[in-house]
Amino acid sequence: MTEPAITPDLIASHGLKPDEYDRILDIIGREPSFTELGIFSAMWNEHCSYKSSKKWLRTLPTTGPQVICGPGENAGVVDIGDGQAVVFKMESHNHPSYIEPYQGAATGVGGILRDVFTMGARPIAAMNSLSFGEKSHPKTRQLVHGVVEGVGGYGNCFGVPTVGGEVRFDPSYNGNCLVNAFAAGLADADKIFYSAASGVGMPVVYLGAKTGRDGVGGATMASAEFDDTIEEKRPTVQVGDPFTEKRLMEACMELMATGAVISIQDMGAAGLTCSAVEMGDKGDLGVRLDLEKVPTREENMTAYEMMLSESQERMLMVLRPEKEAEAKAVFDKWDLDFAIVGETIAEDRFLIMHNGECKADLPLKALSGTAPEYDRPWVPTPAAAPLEDVPELDSIDALKALIGSVNYCSKAWVYEQYDSQVMADTVQRPGLGAGIVRVHDTGKMLAFSSDVTPRYVRANPVEGGKQAVAEAYRNLCAVGAKPLATTDNLNFGNPEKPEIMGQFVGAIQGIGQAVAALDVPIVSGNVSLYNETDGSAILPTPTICAVGLINAEEEPIIGTARDGHVALLVGETSGHLGQSALLAEVFNRTDGDAPAVDLDAEKRNGEFIRNNRDLIKACTDLSDGGLAMAAFEMANAGDVGVQLDAGDTPTLFGEDQARYLIACNFDQAEALMGAAHAAGVTIQSVGRFTGSEVVLGSARAELTELRDIYQNTFGDTFA
Amino acid sequence: MRAAVIVFPGSNCDRDMAVALKNAGADVHMVWHKDTDLPDNLDVVAIPGGFSFGDYLRVGAIAARSPITQSVIAHANRGGYVFGVCNGFQVLTETGLLPGALLRNAGLKYICRHVELTVETTNSAFTTGYAQGQGITIPIAHHDGNYNLDAEGVRALEDQDRIAFRYVDNPNGSVGNIAGVLSENRRVLGMMPHPERLAEEAHGGTDGRPFFAGLMDQVVGA
């Protein structure tokens, strides 16, 4: 089959800029073939190469005594003691989900699960962070239904509990929803599998689903802005098969146990190209592939299509030749296709043969090593407009406005579509604070939280970046877990615009400061840029997922408030209303600076909570909606009323950071006061849990009335 | 008590079921679907939840034709104990060991939540650990749990006291609020709720524990 001639249009349609094409000519000293052009475009697009973000990602703290493997592999690996490790990562599937919500979201979940079990870890928990356009936008309802069903459809069938996440709405996501999927797995610390190939002449084995034409060019699509040709992009979205993924995972676990696996890499973005180059590059080897041996599900596939297909549920591995029979027995047991499709070679070469014909012959190292890297111009985000007067309003009316909004109502409609208990180790289900799962067959538990407040990041990227980390840190402390490490999913607009790049740079600076101060290094992550439609960017959304550990001798803080409990507020309250949820939902205003994050206070107050867990019956962090929202959520969870002494808007709805609300009995409250004083932590009694009403100063309402609003808003809006 | 947990490709509650059975004191054997024989001297076969064969074609339909399933049917026909939870219930209706079928939930959405059940009969090895009419909380997690059976069939179940559990607040449209049913000889049970998911303190509740404890007592005592 003859391949198309290389023309400027063809180059541009591969997302390659003229100077990037010149770079290709410099590297190979000749015009590339069509297949080679496809390979370069797959390796050099923003999604795979991080060419705009790399310079800044390098500044993030990624190490610590707890870190076994930081960014650069399929997922990060963190020590949890007793020879065990938690392996986790978050990744976006934004563009595909907007084009085809069910499959886009489903394959996002599939991709992140594969990243985790590729490293030898059985997935034990999942979360997702979803951002949609405003509820009145004509596409929003369809996206909500499709994305939530897709996330559930994949994760439920695969059999991983979804224990947490976020759902938000903002007009800036109207043309560009965000689907960020997180997964964590459990492995023995000395049995982690990496992607680096080793040994010359070793068989390169393809395992899993057959290769089709789905997703050809998907990574390039994911690195472009949307415009009105979006419907034409539907064929670039992959189709997920969670049943095959489940079998693939079980087969990989069994195969790894045999000792047959030298290296392994899942085929995600840019499929066979990216995975083969990665294995060769990390192992300082070349790779030869014979494409006629690749299992295909469609006839007459070209080399170009096979190299760029993003068909799901596929793995590439280098196996020990002497273990071939054992490996084959495992694949046969699980009825999975496998084939030896090539071998490692000594030269620095990426050699693609198809029916005896050379389709690509490229220097392998150069494909990843010399990918372009940009120092994009950026401008600091200007200071936010000063906060104007905020009128006092009835506190109950204000609370009703929040809990009756799609942003702050109960998300049960969403998370009840996810299996949160499969594996029978879930200790805390979604709904309030961090999700918790047991480490199977041990007394340990792992806690997970996903957080970011995009409106803070827009107003002040540095403080907003810090806040995302701080909130995730707080959510873990609030359940008594020691935060260990984090993964980030950085969703921004077009980095070629200096103001967008400025948001990115600011957020990275804030995240970096926070993870250093709170000792939660970033061990994995993903960057999603070009989240724009017709030139309009999303709110900057650097999602942070944090993972924490509860040791065997420690109890989690998972109780609920009871009648007679004292309400204690930990942390300083100044009544910061700038960029608050109240301002956004009730007044539709975006003025004022984001709340400042005092990282020393975050650390001090978080440690105070963890160290005094035995005195605390129930605890939640304060975030959107401040004290009033936290008190309502605790009252609702405990099915008991709450009375707060304060009635003024700034105290009730201000969003000062580093704060927690605690429920405990009177004696414990006294002991906590003493402990706080000794630790230099600000603490005060702000009311108590009692009766059947929510009382905010002089305003009051029955808890049952508020609960109806809180529980029903989401379903009433979208069902 | 010797128990087998059948593992189909796509089963994902097999380990959970084995843990619950082991915690009740059972000697548990995992049996792969391509096997043709069950372990010798077996008392109980458990068919766990999950998505056997991806729920493709029709939930439970392919698993009902797996090699091991013929042995499970033979075990039941010999009077052996068999129970299926969630996907296991779907498989059992597909084999014909239990009447009816599980359709898509009335609300068309997957539902994972804790639901209230009433124990409708204690006259079975699976329900003997409970009190007649007892209200219990057990989690559900399914997309196809809408139990369907014609009126005559439902009447027969009622007349023969073969309804094991009913939902207090029907989550999925099941006829007669039925959450679990028994075979004529009362030794085969299918139910959509997952007793193995609320069987330890760490699960946040233990209403599922008497299911396994009662089964153990009945089988060992027999």
What does this structure look like?
- The complex is a heterodimer of chains A (719) and B (222).
- Chain A is an alpha+beta fold and 719 residues long.
- In chain A, the strands form 5 sheets. Chain A has a 7-stranded mixed beta sheet.
- Chain A starts with 7 loop residues before the first helix and ends with a helix.
- The mean pLDDT of chain A is 95.
- Chain B has a single domain, classed as Class I glutamine amidotransferase (GATase) domain (Rossmann fold, 3-Layer(aba) Sandwich).
- A 9-stranded mixed beta sheet of chain B has the order 2-1-3-4-11-10-9-6-7, sandwiched between helices.
- Chain B is α/β, with parallel strands linked by helices and 222 residues long.
- The chains are: A alpha+beta (719), B alpha/beta (222).
- At the A-B interface, helix 8 and helix 10 of A face helix 1 and strand 6 of B.
Looking at the chains present, what oligomeric state does this protein adopt?
heterodimer
Shape of chain B: globular
Q: Roughly what percent helix of chain B?
A: 10-25%
Q: How much is the radius of gyration of chain A in Å?
A: 26 Å
Kindly report how far apart the N and C termini of chain B lie.
10 Å
The largest sheet of chain B is: 9 strands, mixed
How many beta strands in the DSSP annotation of chain B? 11
How many E strands of chain A? 28
Structural class of chain B: alpha/beta
